[in-house]
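Per your request, structure below.
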């Protein structure tokens, strides 16, 4: 979760990169991203990544995509799926305002904490989560729909390595879940591809979630390579259309999304876990994720 302090120092373990990439056709070898992530692994960063062709499902790029990683705010997508399913009936629930309360209060990511309005409709809260990963809106929605309902929905989707574990907390104690969310890049890539194809719960639910996520203003990781306006990219720009969700925490940088271009569409996920002890390490991780983005852009454009 962007800005959440877990109260625990990130652990990292150097290891050999285990992965595969597509063939050697121009625009399909992903050499830059593969090398950049491999260099991060050698530097002690835990890395997981996967990319698939949106039309064919062909795996284009993968590194340890089965490994469960902390994914911070990416788990909020599961909350949005449950909220969208609640609103599917088309009743008035989307317009009934939900008030914030003292137990919901949390800092860092989001703008609702800085607004005067003490209550907002459920659909507006979901838009705040999609656009700004709003922590306060997340907690109010979780109180409204229930974490158990989100977990049940996650199981119905067949996800076994991806979960939203807890509400957002400023500090995580020994009795709290150690992470806001976890996930494998294999499952996250499947989830975003399925949302893009309208296959999560129903086409209406999938499209509603995609609409909220299309507001996301965080293009600081993989998506930094796409040249899009962070505040306005809901429509194609030079033939590029992006829907993504990021996760940021101490030692965590993760992103999952769908990128469409004139040549192709692609679903992708990249997760990193590292000891965030100095700025150069963090910048190196972000630079490596951007290199993956450069390869993705070349494939679709």
């Amino acid at each position: 979760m962007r800005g959440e302090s877990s109260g625990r120092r990130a652990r990292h373990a150097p290891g050999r990169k285990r992965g595969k990439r597509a063939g050697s056709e121009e625009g399909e070898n992903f050499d830059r991203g593969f090398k950049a992530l491999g260099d991060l692994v050698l530097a002690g960063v835990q890395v997981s990544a996967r990319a698939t062709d949106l039309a064919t499902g062909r795996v284009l790029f993968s590194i340890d995509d089965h490994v469960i990683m902390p994914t911070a705010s990416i788990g909020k997508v599961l909350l949005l799926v449950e909220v969208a399913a609640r609103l599917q009936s088309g009743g008035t629930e989307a317009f009934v305002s939900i008030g914030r309360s003292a137990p919901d209060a949390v800092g860092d990511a989001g703008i609702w904490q800085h607004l005067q309005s003490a209550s907002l409709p459920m659909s507006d809260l979901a838009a705040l989560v999609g656009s700004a990963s709003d922590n306060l809106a997340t907690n109010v929605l979780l109180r409204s729909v229930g974490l158990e309902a989100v977990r049940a929905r996650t199981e119905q989707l067949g996800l076994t390595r991806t979960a939203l574990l807890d509400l957002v907390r400023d500090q995580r104690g020994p009795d709290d879940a150690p992470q806001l969310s976890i996930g494998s890049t294999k499952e996250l890539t499947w989830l975003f591809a399925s949302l893009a194809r309208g296959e999560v719960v129903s086409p209406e639910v999938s499209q509603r979630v995609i609409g909220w996520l299309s507001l996301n203003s965080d293009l600081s990781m993989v998506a930094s390579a796409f040249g899009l306006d962070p505040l306005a990219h809901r429509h194609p720009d030079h033939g590029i259309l992006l829907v993504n969700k990021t996760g940021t925490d101490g030692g965590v940088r993760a992103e999952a999304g769908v990128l469409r271009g004139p040549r192709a569409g692609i679903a992708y996920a990249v997760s990193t876990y590292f000891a965030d002890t100095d700025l150069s390490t963090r910048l190196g991780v972000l630079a490596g994720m951007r290199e993956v983005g450069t390869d993705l852009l070349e494939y679709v454009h």
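The helical segments are 31-42, 76-86, 122-132, 135-145, 147-156, 185-196, 203-213, 279-300.

Regards,
D.
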